[in-house]
Amino acid sequence: MTTIAFIGLGNMGNPMAANLVKAGHTVNGFDLMPENLTVAREHGVVVMANAIAAVKDADVVITMLPAGKHVLSVYEDAAPKAKQGALFIDSSTIDVESARKAHSVAKKHGLLSIDAPVSGGTGGAAAGTLTFMAGGAKDAFAKAEPILKPMAGRIVHCGDDGAGQAAKICNNMMLGISMIGVAEAFVLAEKLGLSHQALFDVASTSSGQCWSLTTYCPVPGPVPASPANRDYKPGFAAALMLKDLKLSQEAAQSAGAVTPMGAEAAQLYALFNAQGNGGTDFSGIINFLRGNPL
Ligand code: NAD
């Protein structure tokens, strides 16, 4: 079994670390928030005084942090203190440029590294069914795969350094755009006197079919498990969708890609968030499109 340092024990990190403990690993954890450390301790994580103490004896270091600046600051502090040849896995969702910088910090200190953001949300983190999309060298990925397994439903090696983050933001840009498209269609159907169920029955088996419709339907009724049936309680919060859409637009700008629908989706989610809806599920944008408050 492996000694793993886990830095960032928030909504995602804590259940992920708990699954590593369940798999028999020793998990040395650190977070800046004392209440998250209390939860971690209850899950069997060995709570450490700081990131450096957590990393010192670890063979694998996993970070699950809010943004690129947090990841780079932990890497700068911890990489020089890590064991030679240790593997650094960053599962946060961050910009591709910071992800590549994190890889070079790791390399400078003789460490292996992969970027491995996830999809599947807090439910997937608790159930150990996250999809990991990994970027990095083949030897680093090979070493990471068995470590990720207890937290994963699926693990995909997407390519070199940063490829995992690239896959994550491309996927979530599609998701943001498709949710707005599905929501607009339901709003139009309402105005045309077409029932939600009738539109769902047709579109779910026609060319309009997509995940935003069939798994995450933004109106209550057709898909009983979707957040629309519980007052848009997340799920996947609109603030996180906005974060990912902004990352997609930064990446599009620096790579010279034309993404007008992604840009529009980012603007709509920015307005939705500015109206105080950041903590609601992202499918709640349908109320914004109707002109209604949630
Ligand atoms: P969160 O805010 O609940 O957790 C982040 C944790 O990092 C916090 O507990 C914070 O105290 C800690 N932290 C910040 N700086 C630190 C530092 N220097 N040292 C130690 N701890 C530090 O966020 P989350 O929902 O767990 O998300 C984590 C990452 O996963 C984000 O990048 C997010 O975009 C991504 N993500 C989240 C979801 C989701 O549904 N919540 C889904 C997929 C991906």
UniProtKB/TrEMBL annotation:
GO terms for biological process: L-valine catabolic process. Keywords: Branched-chain amino acid catabolism, NAD, Oxidoreductase. Transmembrane segments: none annotated. It catalyses: 3-hydroxy-2-methylpropanoate + NAD(+) = 2-methyl-3-oxopropanoate + NADH + H(+). PROSITE patterns: 3_HYDROXYISOBUT_DH (PS00895). Residues 162-288 form the 3-hydroxyisobutyrate dehydrogenase-like NAD-binding domain. The keyword Lyase does not apply. InterPro entries: 3-OH-isobutyrate_DH-rel_CS, 6-PGluconate_DH-like_C_sf, 6PGD_dom2, 6PGDH_NADP-bd, HIBADH, HIBADH-like_NADP-bd, HIBADH-related, NAD(P)-bd_dom_sf. It comes from the Bacteria. The active site is at K168. Residues 3-159 form the 6-phosphogluconate dehydrogenase NADP-binding domain. Its EC number is 1.1.1.31. Pathway: Amino-acid degradation; L-valine degradation. The keyword Signal does not apply. It holds the Pfam family NAD_binding_11. GO terms for molecular function: 3-hydroxyisobutyrate dehydrogenase activity; NAD binding; NADP binding. Belongs to the HIBADH-related family. This is 3-hydroxyisobutyrate dehydrogenase. It comes from Mesorhizobium neociceri. The gene is mmsB.
